[in-house]
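To assess whether the prediction recovers the assembly geometry, we first specified each molecular entity separately, as shown.
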Amino acid sequence: DIVMTQSPDSLAVSLGERATINCKSSQSVLYSSNNKNYLAWYQQKPGQPPKLLIYWASTRESGVPVRFSGSGSGTDFTLTISSLQAEDVGVYYCQQYYSTPPNTFGQGTRLEIK
Amino acid sequence: EVQLVESGGGLVQPGGSLRLSCAASGFTFSSYAMSWVRQAPGKGLEWVSAISGSGGSTYYADSVKGRFTISRDNSKNTLYLQMNSLRAEDTAVFYCAKYRSTGFYYMDVWGKGTTVTVSS
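The predicted structure of the complete assembly is given in tokenized form:
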């Protein structure tokens, strides 16, 4: 199975500042035939289910604020929040769907306000 | 509105069984693969099981293989998870989630979850 490893485990960022979360896969999730990275990002706020933010590594889900962006290819990916808002507090997960099932998740990164 | 509502969670003794249900609405249920994802208290997300739109293909995490069975009734727009031989480590919130497509890609709709507690 593909193992997803996120860094850092937790992060504290000031309001209005940039937050960056990394995700590394144990093998490439780039499918050469269509040049797509099979990676998604989810946000989970306290007491709520996960919410899809990004898919195909960089495509923002409908309704997701433009301050959220995804980048990377192959085995290394980044979720960036360009200007942190109070409502962005929560845990963020990456998930691969290249080798699936199983859909493996990263261990999560907890984002807090500094 | 697309909606998933889980039910069936509760307190069960080790070795016991439970059946979870997930009622779907607002979309053509049979057209989409579905999954169960769980989250142990204070822990991250763990994919548990998935099923194709027709129900003909099913998949399980190694941690539940042989104990859990996923199924669906497309006439009732309902997904199920039969859980047998439950262990303390199965204690978690179980989420039902819809895949965006017929493939097992990313999950675009999630239910609020149902809590399973395995304890004597």
